[in-house]
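Quick note —
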Amino acid sequence: MKRSLMVFSHPNHEVAILGSVRRIQPHIIFLTDGGARERVEQSEESLRSVVDLADVAWLDVPESSLYDALLKHDTGSFRALANEVASIAKHLDVDRIYCDSIEFYNPLHDVALPIVRAAFEHSALPIFEVPLIHQRKADDEVYEVLRAPGSLRSSCEIVALTPDEHEMKRRAFGIYTSLAEQLGPENVDLAVSRAGEEHFLTARSHLPSPAVDQVLRYDWRGRRLLEQGLVAEAITCHGHYLPLVEELCPMLLAA
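Predicted structure written out below.
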């Protein structure tokens, strides 16, 4: 029987579409450990009552090792992930693919689509991006959660959850304390208030620039960390991310 495949850069990202996860019972692949064992454990706890954990693959690559790989222009580490996704998928009968959206919030979130495109290079399967969080253009530091930028909403598929699915998802937010700490109370409250709808962006066939209402956040954050002396080198879009994509999945830069 054909089933969907979901590929997330980090554990916990599945909460964005947990109602659809329960509804469609997909295969799931998590690329990294999310930087902490507790993130894996919290995803396991949540998913245990939603899907068969035998359908979940935890590649468990240390998050820090992929940041190092980006800094060192080590494309091989990301190609190995694409190969592993392809190897898992060849034993599955997949009808569509979901992955983290390119949101310019975190470069490791943004590698999910290039990895999926590389893994399914010769496939015509439909691919959808799952919005999690992006920084909005504003005078203050403001984030949008579980929604694509407003300028891209017309390319979104919207799924309304049933009352039962909605309540299950609202309760599940209490499990993801690691993600909640990262997002902050205001963004978590916004995410919970939007739990009844799940948005899926038709995957871009070429690597987009930030939308007109979206900030290139990891460049912005990198500058702040450098100014504070907290890092010796910052990961940037043009210096690290784009060169990776060009080697890993040149088709995304061809258009």
